[in-house]
Fold this sequence. Notes:
Elements: H1 2-61, H2 68-71, E1 77-79, E2 82-84, E3 97-101, E4 104-109, H3 119-132, E5 141-146, E6 164-169, E7 173-175, E8 185-187, E9 191-196
Antiparallel strand pairs: 1-2, 3-4, 3-5, 5-6, 6-9, 7-8
Amino acid sequence: MLLRFFLFRFLRAESGTAAEFALVLPLLLLLTLGTIDVGYYAYRINEAEKATQIGARWAAVTDPLAKEIASTNYTNTFVGTDIILQGEPIPAGALGKISCTSVGCTCVTSPCPGTTFDPASFSALSTRMKQIWPGLEDRNIRVDYSGSGLGFAGDPNGPDIAPLITVRLADMTYNSIALSPLGVSANLPDFAYSITAEDSAGTSSN
């Protein structure tokens, strides 16, 4: 009789523990997956930052996406009312802003020497950035060229102008792990990294 009494109490205690565990389990899973989510979100931000930096470095030493940046001779051209003579430094005002995406280049702020798009250069840039972040899409990438005040007219060793190059990543989302069954996602911040162009010639970089 005493044995049956203790067995009954043990079973009652076990059933109570199981019920409590069932109540706590969803919260525990949500907390665990949420912690993973936060870490993975931070990892994605780190990937995007590094991809942007590598992209800017690549763009600085390879063929420009707008071909005229590398081919335009600024000798005897005007910036405002001032003429640039052979060997003179090129002022920042000689180039406004050219913005390039996967579909082409546009002159955002004049003056612009031209906006002929080089799809091969964009493809090489995109491929290099995707080595850092494979999930990156071409539509997320934008490259801006603007005047830096560097370079000189009639440079025999390369492009006359050395623009400031800014590689941007925008319109990116992060799909939540914990809330993926509900289709929940969050916007990633935009990223930008700027560097001055170097030789602006070639198809590869370190």
